[in-house]
């Protein structure tokens, strides 16, 4: 049996920030979940639909693992990433740092984890691993999934080996903090400006504020788009509110990040951004409720209303990011 000592197994709302919290606290850096998310320039938006998809996908953050890369770069942390097609090498990449007393982050498919409450394939899930014995791996997952949990080594191997959308090749990673660590406060403004620039200047119409505008036009058609609206629409609403987003499609996390920043930095641009994202977060929760109700009732009026709110959200978030870009 191998177990990293003095692990803080707090589970947060989102999987990648939960894992980052575990790894960074082990290095002596304890940041709130909103601060981890914001310093990683994690907020985004994507509307994705294609012929091969059963139903459109709405995303409120950047791609899986980009948050980790962004955060470690911003803070000057050493990120060591291992990937391999060999299950044997993949296990060595995890066992070696744990044996040496260091927790490891893993990207895997949550479907194969014994404890996972919802059995759906999601290859962008991230967990922290801090121990193992002959049968089980000891992990930290989000608070809704149980925080400190365990899964069979066989299930873990299947989760890491799975292939499909957003999966990685047995990806594992460790983080090391240098002795002269960059002050997180000094990196707040660059992280916010990076996020704002990306959001305001999307390369395609599916992303950023343009993606929200596109969603506003598409959502009213969702009853016709779905073969099973009674399942698809409520599921889409759950993914927006409950599935590791921290609520309101990650807007709650970014709102709270900006509130924390406003306690550290005196800026009218920051205060405007926070006020607008507080408004946006409440409206995203309203959109999710309208989509769920439309699926349950079959009444398209709810989707028309959701489209109107989304049009307003595109304007609010564009104005918020414009203000934040002025920092």
UniProtKB/TrEMBL annotation:
InterPro entries: BtrH_N, DUF4872. Pfam families: BtrH_N (PF14399), DUF4872 (PF16169). Residues 155-324 form the DUF4872 domain. Coiled coil: none annotated. Residues 14-142 form the Butirosin biosynthesis protein H N-terminal domain. This is Lantibiotic ABC transporter. It comes from Streptomyces resistomycificus.
